[in-house]
Amino acid sequence: MTLLKKTITLAAVAAVGLGSFAAQASETIKVGDINHYKRLAFLAQPYKKGLDLAVSEINADGGVLGKPLEIIYRDDQGKPGEAVKIAEELMTRDGTVMLTGTILSNVGLAISSYAAEKKYLYLAAEPLADALVWAKGNEYTFRLRPSTYMQAAMLAEQAAKDPAVKYATIAPNYAYGKDAVAAFKKALTALRPDVTFVTEQWPALFKIDAGAEVQAIERAKPDAIYNVTFGGDLGKFVRQGSLRGLFDDRKVYGLLTGEPEYIDPLKDEAPEGWVVTGYPWYDFEGGANKAFVDAYKAAYGERPGIGSLVGYTTGQTIGAGIRSAGSTDTQALVAAFKGLQVDTPVGQIMFRKQDHQSTMGAFVGTTAIRDGMGVMVDWSYKDGADYLPSDAEVKLLRPSAN
Amino acid sequence: MELFIAQLLNGFANAAALFMVASGLSLIFGVTRIVNFSHGSFYMLGAYIGYSLMQVLPGAVGFWGAVVLAGLAVGVIGVVVEVCVLRPIYKAPELFQLVATFGVILVIQDLALMVWGPDDMLGPRAPGLKGIVRILGEPIPQYDLALIAITPFVLFGLWYMMAKTRAGILVRAATQDREMVGALGVNQAWLFTGVFFLGSALAGLGGAIQLPKGGADLMMDFNILGAIFVVVVIAGMGSLPGAYVASVLISVLGVFGVAYLPHSTLVLMFVVMALVLMIRPYGLFGRAEVAGEHGQVGEPERPIKPAGRNARIWVALGLLVLAAVPVFGSSFSQVLITDIIIFCLFAASLHFMLGLGGMVSFGHAAYFGGGAYVAALLVSYANTPMELALILAPIGAGMLAFLIGWFCIRLTGVYFAMLTLAFAQLLWSLVFQWGEVTGGDDGMVDLWPSAWLNSTSAYYYLTLVLGVGSIILLRHVAHSPFGYALRASRDSSRQAEATGINTQRMKWAAFTLAGMMAGLAGGLFLFSKGSIFPSEMETAKSFDGLIVLFLGGVKTLSGAVVGAASLELVKDLITRLEYWRLMLGLLIIGVVILAPEGIVGSLQSAKEKLGLSKQENNQ
Question: Which residues in chain A are closer than 8 Å to B219, comparing Cβ atoms?
Answer without folding.
Answer: 206, 232
